[in-house]
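>> received
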Amino acid sequence: MKLTFPTIYRATAINIVIVVIYLVIALWLMRTQGASWWNVGIAAYVASLLVLALWRVPKVQIALLPAKGVKAEDVFKAENDARATLAQILGGFAVLIGLYFAWTNITATTKNLELTKEGQITDRFTKAIEQLGATDNDGKPKLELRLGGIYALERIARDSERDHWAIMEVLTAYVREHSQWKAANLPANQNPLAADIQAVVTVIRRHEWRHEDGYLDLHGTNLHDAHLQHALLQHAYLWDARLVGAHLWDAHLEHAYLEYADLNRADLKRAYLTCADLTVADLTSAHLEGAHLEGADLKTAQGVTQAQVDSAIGDTYTKLPAGIVRPAAWPKPTVNRSRCRPRKPTS
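>> returned
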């Protein structure tokens, strides 16, 4: 049988081409990862050695076998079979190398995308802060831009968990700066809350409290008639706050600091005031139907009536003003008073 190139070397050529292709892909992936040409050159040299090994090793293996009575066709076939096996092994290694670099490339791309996202959030945050202080040529607030800034900050707080609490601090500081009631000469008929302040209140009401958060600081602010129903205000600093007529039904005010707060006519139905500090707070005409007062301190609260207390839910740890009788229907203690936080100074 005559040995020709198509019949003898076809499998060898195909195997070599496959290995070369795998190695080229691996080198390309290395280059996309920022590898230096020095490293690529070394890889190319190693690839050349592998190709040489693919050609020479099978010949050496077959040469070590007994050759007596073996036909030339069988020798070439044995070499090609050994070469095919070696090519598959080397090709498998090349594929693994390619997969490794593909994985590192995906990881690097993901990291770059995260950095890009963080950069975009930073730009959005900076722009929203600028809008929050926008004024016209006369120095008057530009309400439409400020509202846009407030709601932009809310969106960022939802998109970026890392910036969530910082944004809440910015917004509460805005309210403390622009809605101080003691510093203002309030008229007898108070005007509605300014649109920007009510917008911040709306954001606070939609705020999702997290354990890693700090405490919302709204002390000394004018929040009359504010819509804070269902708001999560656990541990909030609300001392000296003016909450006249505020809508606080179903709000969570556990452990809240409400010393000297004006809650006249406030709607606190079903609100959670467990362990809240209501020292010298004004509860005149406040609605306490179904409000949770377990462990709350109302000992020096003003304007508290027996009817209000009878309509609320408390326990033996609830501190009541002098002259107010603890309702017999109140359940046994459900809150350990020792777990209630001590009163924060009102300075």
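>> The radius of gyration is 38 Å.
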